[in-house]
Amino acid sequence: MKRIFYIIVIFLFILPTLIYSQENQEQEEIWKKQIMTGFIINQVSYSNWVKGGENALSWTANVDMRFEKDDTKANWSTVGKFAFGQTKQQNLETRKSVDKIDISSDYIYKYKKDLNPFFGGSILTQFSTGYDHSKTPKIPKSNFFDPVYIQQSAGAGFLFNSSLKTKIGVAIREIISKSYGKWGYTDNPDTPEIEKYKIEKGITSITTVYKKIAENLLIDSKLEMFSRLDGIKNVDINFENTITAQIVKYIAVKFEMLLYYDRDISKTIQTKQTLGMGFTFNLF
What we know:
Layout: H1 2-23, E1 31-44, E2 56-70, E3 74-89, E4 95-109, E5 116-125, E6 130-132, E7 139-142, E8 148-159, E9 164-176, E10 197-214, E11 217-228, E12 235-248, E13 251-261, E14 270-282
Antiparallel strand pairs: 1-2, 1-14, 2-3, 3-4, 4-5, 5-8, 6-7, 8-9, 9-10, 10-11, 11-12, 12-13, 13-14
């Protein structure tokens, strides 16, 4: 029942954009609407292979949604990125490799050339349980909507061109973790109890690039930084980069690189890199 509630919350977050885009049919050319789905699978199998090796199978499914309205008065964009994938090696149980629910919506009012107030919000969480497989037995460290990061921000937005945007402003971020706060998501180590809820106030900066640099080559990049008011050493960084090369109509190669830093969770920079080929479909 709780999962149904959370799914309803997600759709309510993007519903205003969907409704508004449908109600303005006379300005259809202003709205840019795109939904892309993809499925990537990699398989390795050995038989009597002298050099050694392990059978492996991995798959990833993703849906990327983008709704943007850009006119002389304002720029309004809502982006949803959903991905889930698993990996199975010969003597190991199936493990999660990708898991993301990432929704953001921003409204930039074009007041003057160099002064564009903006208001925005975002939700970041995941679909299923994540484990620490280095322990025996494995230890759960996250789950569906646990933790969930909800952020509201306001400030100045800069529209350099149709592909490059930067937003700088103040932000309030709520972090909720019902069962896994002890892993650093919400817990305050200076108190005896394990907190399930945390509010952070700070400065945020978000720069996005979404551009086709060739007919079959797309770059989607986002650099997001959040600095709490208690010091520059507590800057959280989320740097996502995706390059998609369309080989033929329904076949594409996708390269993804993620750099993530959150001092509360780990004092080292976390990185992830994936490369795969699979099927892609543009629904519209």
